[in-house]
Design brief:
The complex is a heterodimer of chains A (about 550) and B (about 325). Chain A has about 550 residues and is of the alpha+beta class. Chain A has 16 helices and 25 strands. The chains are: A alpha+beta (about 550), B mainly alpha (about 325).
């Protein structure tokens, strides 16, 4: 009872707090300038070289050090260039046949060593990204849509496209960064990621690199020569600790200003804290229980999951609202399908499979699975057991798995939870060596990632992530139409059709869509926070008062 | 003595080689590899396979082993995929940090353990020493990370007397004077060093108490007292040196405990040392880093054991007979 009351209290506090989130994100621009922001994080960067970064922490830092040609607008449109904001490029002009786009760089743009950013740097960056020796995931996206990049003069370059892909501008502007040719041209392409530059880069963004002590801190400072105006903060320090709990505790102890992710009880504590407030930072992605439609070892159709009715029965037996509540409390949603609410293709009117345990039991009965004496269903003497692989590092997914286990037990399905570490999880997903898996997806702003996850071609294609080997020609057709649609309305209709067919076919159960709620010191003034990448608004943040840390009584005079 | 040292050194070489080989094999038996640990959903299986080929992880394990040994002979410890830099560079930063943490902890742990053990032996039977005995037993029995979390929660979070994690004040450290920087590091050391020292002192005090109790019954102490020596002199001059043998012996064996404890303490207090490095390496299936950290850890443990043996022989020549 006490536990129940505590949860209720937490929920109410969180709910009250969330009502106030809107007043935090977006409106609280202090107008003050300067100061140091200390961000507490449990993740370190891998490299700070944009083409080869893999870790989220690297993304957050390099996005401040390196400028894109253009940046996606607040509506996260990925079709064409509507809403895109000029960054390194002052403006761009499409060719009449729309098979090339010419970027005119801002002549004020400078590298952090003072050298001007030239079109030849964009060309050099392009050549690095698309070089297979560099092994850049972004480079693969660039290669898919573009043929080459040519330079007209020191501030003008043209990207030539292979095809009229509706997202070709997004693919280039989002992924391509200029790289300083004057610093890197002497380094072999396959050594760039392991070079000293990858650990201490010279960029062209609003902040310049200061230092990186691995597993301790990363520091960047405002770049006075930034062509779009000096950022408000003087410097940003990421203080890196090994555990998320320690990272949170540093903020609560006043040793850091900001953390990007809190657990539900911590959100309630943040609202009660005298120097902190909670802040909504958009959505993280979603988690789903994916079924492997092939039998891993034999690669034959899976005896259970290849049956559409069986998958639907399991979905109907799953109370997704209860799963989400247990895993995320009030800091999340039940996903509507294979997308997040932040994406422009999101559709909240899709028809969901109903929660209907009786109906689910009827389907299982009809498939020959009868309840035995121990309550577990059997067919031909074989119990109905399913193995679910879960990454042990994800508390939310483990919690969700436990709730599903209990819900399925009630209809006579035994769910065995197999907790594994991240490398094992990745290896078994890649090798399709699982029966069911509690996987997480972090979508890009573009909904076209649907193709990588659910298209038949994604079972075998080089960048395919269709780990469950789901295949349906109708879904394929809808996805292809959506990806190639040239208008938002048309693409939206095709995406809707694809989503609906996937929900009906139930190759997965979409369970969790967590909200990202962080804590920030009240001395920090936030800018407008974009829904897809909170860190990109850091140049507009400012801090007043004293930064965390202890004053040095023996400090030298400046 | 020379023969003894040579014998110990040859044993050490065998132990280090065996541990290195075992670590190499075990690391590869674990599911996954360095490239599966990358947090990049867009990385394809083909690209991961290409990376394995680039780094030679697709070669037969015997060939990989031979290459590793060959590189080791030239001082090349390999490339850390989880840290994206040479292993030697990673360890060059981590090993001094761990020594900065463990050496004071061992020193304070040994001194504290001997002092506490002596006090418990001299005051044996009293209520307060029984309570102290129970407390030390609790510290020995409780897992290291519980002690670390308890210290952190009480002193760092509740009382807010000391910084809770990291090695320095990241905001102000660089602008501090030399004295200020030293003070800053020392302040950050207090909690992790104390935690480790408490764990060491608890174990040492129990051994030392037992040794002291045996010595306190000795005839030569009765003689010293009969000659009019003060109780303080009897304890400090006659009993304590004779009871130090077991402490010296376990001091050599403390190295594994200290490095094991450092893993938890570094993790809890965010201290960027060897312990944290090895945890990261194992989690990230960073073969080269796992192998190098275990190798260096083994060398440190083996060297500590040899030094302890030599000191034990020097302190008590009778033990040479057993060698």
């Amino acid at each position: 009872m006490r536990h129940f009351l505590t949860r209720r209290l937490v929920r109410r506090t969180v709910a009250l707090g969330l009502l106030g989130l809107a007043s935090v994100g977006g409106c609280d621009t202090g107008g003050s300038r300067g100061g140091t922001l200390v961000i507490s994080t449990a993740g370190d960067a891998d490299v700070l070289f944009p083409p080869t970064i893999r870790q989220q922490q690297s993304v957050e830092v390099t996005d401040l050090l390196f400028e894109r040609l253009a940046d996606i607008g607040p509506d996260l449109n990925t079709l064409g260039d509507a809403g895109w904001q000029p960054r390194l490029a002052q403006h761009w002009v499409w060719a009449a046949d729309s098979m090339s786009v010419t970027f005119h760089l801002d002549p004020r743009a400078r590298w952090h060593d003072g050298q001007p950013v030239r079109a030849s740097d964009v060309r050099y960056g392009y050549s690095v990204y698309v070089d297979s020796a560099v092994r850049s995931s972004d480079g693969r996206d660039i290669r898919e849509v573009s043929d080459s990049l040519t330079v007209a003069d020191s501030v003008t370059c043209t990207v030539w496209f292979r095809q009229r892909n509706p997202e070709r501008f997004y693919r280039i502007a989002q992924n391509l960064r200029a790289l300083p040719e004057h610093l890197l041209s002497g380094i072999a392409r396959d050594s760039l990621a392991t070079s000293g530059y990858a650990r201490a880069p010279v960029g062209n963004g609003p902040f310049k690199f200061v230092r990186w002590d691995q597993r301790q801190r990363i520091e960047v400072a405002a770049f006075d020569g930034y062509h779009l105006g000096r950022p408000s903060l003087d410097r940003i320090i990421w203080t890196i600790v090994p555990e998320n709990a320690t990272a949170v505790q540093r903020v609560f102890a006043g040793e850091a200003d900001f953390i990007q992710m809190l657990a539900p009880p911590q959100v309630a504590d943040a609202w009660k804290h005298e120097t902190l407030r909670a802040v909504h930072l958009g959505s993280l992605g979603y988690s789903h229980m994916i079924f492997n439609l092939r039998d891993g070892p034999t690669n034959r159709p899976h005896p259970l999951f290849s049956n559409r009715e069986f998958r639907r029965a399991l979905t109907m037996a799953t109370d997704r609202q209860a799963v989400m509540r247990n895993a995320l409390d009030s800091l999340g949603y039940v996903p509507y399908g294979p997308f997040i609410r932040e994406q422009w293709s999101a559709d909240t009117t899709l028809r969901q499979l109903p929660l209907d345990r009786t109906g689910a039991e009827r389907i299982l009965d009809s498939l020959g699975w009868r309840k035995g004496e121990n309550g577990i269903r059997q067919r031909a003497g074989k119990p109905l057991r399913i193995s679910l692989m879960v990454p042990a590092s994800s508390a939310a997914r483990v919690a969700a798995a436990l709730v599903v286990q209990e819900q399925w037990r009630q209809i006579g399905v035994q769910l065995d939870i197999d907790r594994v570490d991240n490398p094992t999880f990745g290896g078994r997903m890649g090798g399709r060596q699982f029966e069911a898996s509690m996987a997480g997806v972090s979508p890009q702003p573009s909904p076209s990632g649907l193709r990588q996850n659910w298209h038949t071609a994604a079972i075998t294609m080089s960048n395919g992530l269709n780990a469950g080997s789901f295949s349906d020609p109708l879904v394929d057709a809808a996805i292809d139409s959506a990806v190639n649609a040239t208008s938002v309305a048309s693409a939206r209709a095709h995406y809707r059709a694809a989503y609906q067919m996937l929900i009906d076919a139930a190759p997965a159960i979409w369970l969790l869509e967590p909200m990202r709620v962080g804590a920030v010191s009240r001395r920090v003034n936030l800018g407008t926070i974009p829904r897809h990448a909170w860190w990109s608004s850091l140049p507009t943040w400012s801090a007043t008062g004293t930064a965390p840390g202890r004053a040095d009584t023996a400090a030298r005079s400046p | 003595m020379r023969g003894f040292i040579l014998a110990r050194l040859s044993q050490a070489v065998v132990v280090v080689a065996a541990v290195a080989t075992l670590t190499f094999g075990l690391a590869r038996l674990a599911p996954g590899d360095p490239f599966l640990a990358f947090d990049d959903a867009r990385l394809t299986e083909q690209e991961r396979a290409a990376m394995r080929k680039d780094w030679g992880y697709d070669r037969p394990i015997v060939e990989q082993y031979g290459r590793w040994i060959g590189n080791l002979a030239t001082g090349d410890l390999g490339w850390s995929h989880s840290r994206s830099r040479p292993v030697s560079e990673v360890l060059g930063a981590a090993v001094p940090n761990t020594l900065l943490l463990t050496l004071p902890a061992v020193l304070f742990g040994l001194l504290g353990g001997v002092a506490f053990g002596t006090w418990k032996a001299v005051r044996r039977g009293k209520l307060v020493t029984r309570a102290a005995d129970a407390a030390t037993l609790a510290f020995v029995s409780v897992p290291d990370f519980i002690v670390a979390v308890a210290v952190l929660s009480i002193v760092g979070i509740e009382l807010r007397w000391l910084p809770t994690s990291g090695m320095v004040d990241v905001v102000n450290h660089d602008s501090m004077s030399l004295v200020g920087r030293a003070t800053d590091v020392a302040t950050h050391m207090i909690l992790p060093v104390s935690t480790l020292a408490i764990i060491i002192a608890a174990a040492v005090s129990r051994y030392h108490r037992a040794a002291m109790l045996g010595v306190l019954q000795s005839d030569h102490l009765r003689t010293a007292r009969a000659k009019g020596a003060s109780e303080r002199r009897v304890i400090m001059r006659h009993a304590l040196p004779n009871a130090l043998g077991p402490v010296i012996a376990i001091a050599g064996l403390l190295a594994p405990t200290v490095f094991g404890g450092a893993v938890f303490v570094e993790k809890v207090f965010g201290w960027p040392g060897m312990g944290l490095t090895v945890v990261d390496a194992v989690t990230g299936r960073d073969y080269a880093l796992v192998q190098a950290t275990v190798l260096i850890g083994t060398v440190l443990v083996v060297v500590s054991a040899i030094v302890a043996d030599i000191v034990a022989v020097m302190v008590n020549p009778r033990t040479r007979i057993d060698l």
